Amino acid sequence: MGARVTFDNPKDSIGGVAPIQDAVHLCVDMQRIFSTGGLWQTPWMERVLPTIAAVAALCPMRTVFSRFITPARADETPGQWQRYYRRWATATRDNLESSQLDLVSELAGYAPPATIIDKPAYSAFYRSSLMGFLAERHIRTLIVSGAETDVCVLSTVLDAVNIGYRVVILQDCLCSSSDEGHDALMTMYRLRYTEQIDLITADMLPEIWVDLVG
Predict the structure, then answer these.
(1) Residue 15 resides in a domain
(2) Own/partner long-range contacts of 2-7 (Cβ < 8 Å, ≥24 apart)
(3) Which helix (H) or strand (E) holds 197?
(4) Chain-wide mean pLDDT for the chain?
(5) How far is residue 127's CA from residue 1's CA, in Å, rounded to a whole number?
(6) Is residue 4 part of a domain?
(7) Beta strand extents in 126-165 (DSSP E only)
């Protein structure tokens, strides 16, 4: 990379959003199980997938893909997860085609050099290697995309906020099976998390992600 760009005023970049640095792109659960024809099909995925792929292509080495890995059987899980997987027995690994848990083909080619981190629940931080991965690389900011806005993305974002990361949400790189859930979350972020979360569109990213400029 060339020399970093400096900003006289950190809020003078684009749209009042401070420059992004010491960051990774965290793409949540863009897997075949959520794509067209998947067990948990998310209708918006096809619409946002080209934009997410373009973001991953900016710097695959600074991209992390999380994958939601279901248990082999419901009785392997704690508490209410057992009830969940009794309902969704077809999603357990004993019954599910293993390729359903793979990244969608449009993103799989970026890893490596992108990193894949598996998780057993909604948040990408829960019982995964993500926290250690970020700490080793002195990451301070997460640029978030993926599925679903109001489930796994929500859980991951709130954990990141609680830990103390700056979160930059790519609002045109999220998908959900619920329009109402998606809209409610975007409103909540704008109204309640302005000191910790920025909302931008993907086309703004190359101009304000400092580590990529030059």
Answers:
(1) no
(2) 2/213, 2/214, 3/214, 4/210, 4/211, 4/213, 4/214, 5/210, 5/213, 5/214
(3) strand 197-200
(4) 92
(5) 34
(6) no
(7) 141-147
Query: Rg of the chain over CA atoms, in angstroms?
Result: 17
**Domain containing 84 — which CATH number?**
3.40.50.850
As beta bridge partners, residue 175 has: 147
Query: Does any domain span residue 162?
Result: yes
Check residue 80 and report its DSSP letter.
H
pTM for the model? 0.91
- Which pLDDT tens digit goes with each residue over 99-138? 999 999 999 999 999 999 999 999 999 999 999 999 999 9
- Exposed / middle / buried, residue 209 (Cβ in 10 Å: 0-12, 13-18, 19+): buried
Burial of 84 (0-12, 13-18, 19+ CB in 10 A): middle
Distance of CA 116 to the CA centre of its chain: 12
For residue 184, what are its two tokens? 């409610």
Which runs of consecutive H residues, i.e. helices, occur in 88-125?
A: 105-108
Q: Which tokens is 200 given?
A: 């931008």
For residue 124, CA distances in Å to 10, 88, 163 come to 29, 21, 13
Domain, as residue range, for 65: 23-212
Q: Read out DSSP for 87-98?
A: HTGGGSTTTS-G
Give the separation between CA 163 and CA 141, rounded to whole angstroms: 11
Q: Which two tokens stand for residue 124?
A: 């990408």
Look up residue 97 and give its DSSP letter.
Answer: -
The whole-angstrom separation of Cα 127 and Cα 120 is: 7
